[in-house]
Amino acid sequence: MVKLWKLSKCLLVSGLLFSSCFYGNCSKENPKILKMPDIQLPVTISGHLSTNETVSDNIIDADIEWKLTSDEPLKKNYKVALHFMDQDGEVLFVDDHLPSVPSSQWKKDEVIKYSRPIYIPFAVDQKTASVVIGLYDEKNPQEKIGLNGLQNVYKPARYVLGTLKILPCDDFTLDTERMDFKKGWYNLERDVRNRLQWRWTKEEAVCSIRNPKKQAVLYIRGWVPEFESPATVSIVLNGQSLEQFTAKDEFIKKYEINKELLGTSEWIDLVLKTDKLYSPSEHGQTSDPRNLGIMVKRIFFR
What we know:
- With 302 residues, this protein is mainly β.
- It contains two helices and 22 strands.
- The chain has helices at residues 175-178, 259-262, and strands spanning 4-6, 11-14, 32-34, 44-52, 54-55, 58-68, 79-85, 91-94, 111-120, 127-136, 143-145, 153-155, 158-167, 179-185, 189-191, 196-210, 216-223, 231-237, 240-247, 250-257, 267-274, 295-301.
- The strands form four sheets. Strands 14, 15, 16, 17, 18, 19, 20, 21 and 22 form a nine-stranded antiparallel sheet that branches. Strands 5, 7, 8, 10, 12 and 13 form a six-stranded mixed sheet that branches. Strands 1, 2, 4, 6 and 9 form a five-stranded antiparallel sheet that branches.
- Residues 1-19 form the signal peptide.
């Protein structure tokens, strides 16, 4: 059963240093906590996230709000750290992202509000996750906006907004049993430290997916390199075009799929296409000679 979960109020935090640690466990990292220059009052940002309690292996929608209450603008485009932690302080999953409006463009008292679909990985046991949020410089992750005014501080520049109960998954079928990466895909790659995995496509990639034969949700999280002009990406399911769009960075797509579109076959094809390829070796970044299209971080189809 899905129950409503949301914060009771908007949390106000301000741009100062702090000394306390959540769970009684201080982080060993020594980040550069950023103090905003030339302002008499601290930079105050409010962060609010509301979502649903949900079974695991599912998609939830998160509504996120930011509000800058100082005349002094933020100097950089900071990334949002949105982490879900268990009671032992271990990371369950993350959804770091750029806000809908770059933080350098935030204006005093303007509310920046956006919604994001978030994939909840499957859990064998019931877990209570702390929802932890912060802002940091993606190019220099140790530089973070130092915030204050919250009682629940997890670690330097990370703040607990609330908790989310994750229930055991009813269906333990692994994605590898639901999907067959047929052609146009490179091997699976992993970042063990940050618990991330992804698979690059070529210009066109075909993935066969087990047909649920019912109303379903298709969720795709991907990333394309930054080209001089945005790449054109198209998504086709069972021969039907779902969308064609331009992308220049990360993208998240969520589609409600009617049963009629799926047909009666046991397996159906999902096709991803891009009109631009990137070769790291040609740009002198690494010796990797591959021609890379889309970095696919997650495909969810239930």
